[in-house]
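FORM 7B: Structural annotation worksheet

SECTION A. Query
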Amino acid sequence: MKSPSFLVLAFVFYSLISIGQENKFGTYYNQRLTLFEKLPDTKGEIIFLGNSITDGGEWCELLGNPKAKNRGISGDTTEGVLFRLNEVTRSKPKMVFLLIGINDLSRGVSKDTVNHNICRIADRIRKDSPKTKVFIQSILPVSDTFGLFKNHTNKTDDVIWINSQLKTWCDKENVGFVDLYSRFKIADSERLNPQLTNDGLHLTGDGYLLWIEIIKPLVPSK
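SECTION B. Predicted structure
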């Protein structure tokens, strides 16, 4: 039987880990992650993994599929996703659709690091859940015309470079790649289509409907 002092020390240790996690990734991150960890795992999950853009989607309803699970966290980064991958892979999901990276760029993380981390995420999922089909979705275009999210919307060149690198890597590694970028931008520009956003970064309802139109052929029926 463990001594009371050992139990107290263990409690303090795990409390400090929890506090450190919250300080590093933020309160909302911790709220969402602790919820995800409590939700039941189900067979054949289709997981949507990413930041606020994923977080904002009602995936189950959009796809008409109860197996679709939202694992988006507003403000998340590639590092944050790597930290919480155990929760994602423990159910051995059928599919994972990943969209991440723009928040890293807004915080000054290099494009090389963002690209490397996205590939690491895909590799981790395949290692921990070999039967899971992984789809890396290209980072969406952004638009500076709204005057908002200036640290995000000035990263178009980096976004284009990362998407190109990811496409090449996915082709080489037999990982699914979904080109959202070319469908979401204005035809004669690299800006996010204003019909699909109201702030230059996040999506309106029409944006989510387009997203579903693009990926639905990849998702099995119920």
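SECTION C. Observations
The mean pLDDT is 93. Residues 4-25 form the longest helix (22 residues).

SECTION D. Sign-off
Analyst initials: ____
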